[in-house]
Amino acid sequence: MVKIGIVGSDNSHAIAFSKLCNASGGRDGLRVRGARVTHLFGLNQARNEEVAAAGDIPTIVADPAEMLGRVDAVLVVFRHGGLHAQYALPFIKAGVPVFVDKPLACTVTDAKKLVAAAKRSGSGLTSFSTVRYAGDTVKVIKDVRKVGPLAGGVVFGPADAASEYGGLIFYGIHTVEIMLEVFGYDVASVRAVQSEMGVTATCAYRDGALVTLQFVTKGARGFGVMVHTQKGHVVRELNLSTCYRDGFRVYFKMFKTGAWPLTGPQLVRPIEVMEAIVASYTSGEAVKLRKMRGS
């Protein structure tokens, strides 16, 4: 049984993940076996107690350092990605395998700092939107591969540039990660515009593909993709009902094996794309991205 500590009780994901492990019926009937959330830390005691009760978590700690030596793995799930580096680094430096909820960080500097620390300590580290590993997202990718090569497309999802949890990156990271999972990581440049309805960004790939990202602030919620290939089209509004379980299985496997599901550069890339999008709609200019290298 893998004992897991959760750091960051403010996020609804803290309840979702703990129910997957701890509740007899799991979450909405979905269960992950072989793990139990045993410890919880958060910045608000009333919220801590609420999450502990909902997720059947036996121990609330006043300091996350109290988890060291008592848990086998940690989930850092604060809503604001700007808190992630501060709270994840002590566990990473101690060699504890860590999952950092989306986004890994709010800046490329912090994202690189986390990856570098994990490389030095040998700690397992991963971070992603569970949307990218949802069963329906995986099926879309398989369908796309059957009719490729890719010429371009559209990915849409909700986001708010004025979010108190770091701005566009808080929810926009979902849409960016779907794009990277479907179309790949080799984005060459980004041009973005902002209106009261949201943000639209065109991502130019080095192979010539053009992908439009629509971050919807005022409009229907939900995520979807439209992919153009040289042989046909794939259009899908994504069913994300199993995303928490599907994502948990990915990082639970890392906890058990030590193998990172995403490389260091792959972990940093979504943050680089998000920074480029914000810089573009702020400046009114296209922003180039470096070619991704190494592992």
Sum this structure up briefly:
With 295 residues, the protein is α/β, with parallel strands linked by helices. It has helices at 12-22, 45-55, 84-93, 108-121, 135-147, 169-183, 243-257, 264-283; strands spanning 2-7, 35-41, 59-60, 73-76, 98-101, 125-128, 150-158, 187-195, 198-205, 210-216, 224-229, 233-237, 287-288.
Query: What structural class is derived from the secondary structure elements?
Result: alpha/beta
Over all CA atoms, what is the radius of gyration?
Answer: 19 Å
- As a percent range, the share of helical residues equals 25-40%
The total beta strand count reads: 13
Report the total helices: 8
CATH topology of the largest domain: Rossmann fold
The CATH homologous superfamily of the largest domain is named NAD(P)-binding Rossmann-like Domain
Summed up, the domain count is: 2
What does this structure look like?
The chain folds into two domains: 2-130 and 244-261, Rossmann fold (3-Layer(aba) Sandwich), CATH 3.40.50; 131-240 and 271-288, Dihydrodipicolinate Reductase, domain 2 (2-Layer Sandwich), CATH 3.30.360. 37% of the residues lie in helices and 25% in strands. The chain has helices spanning 12-22, 45-55, 84-93, 108-121, 135-147, 169-183, 243-257, 264-283, and strands spanning 2-7, 35-41, 59-60, 73-76, 98-101, 125-128, 150-158, 187-195, 198-205, 210-216, 224-229, 233-237, 287-288. It is of the alpha/beta class and 295 residues long. The protein has eight helices and 13 strands. The radius of gyration is 19 Å and the shape is globular. The two termini are 31 Å apart. Helix 3 packs parallel to helix 4 and helix 6 crosses helix 8 (264-283).
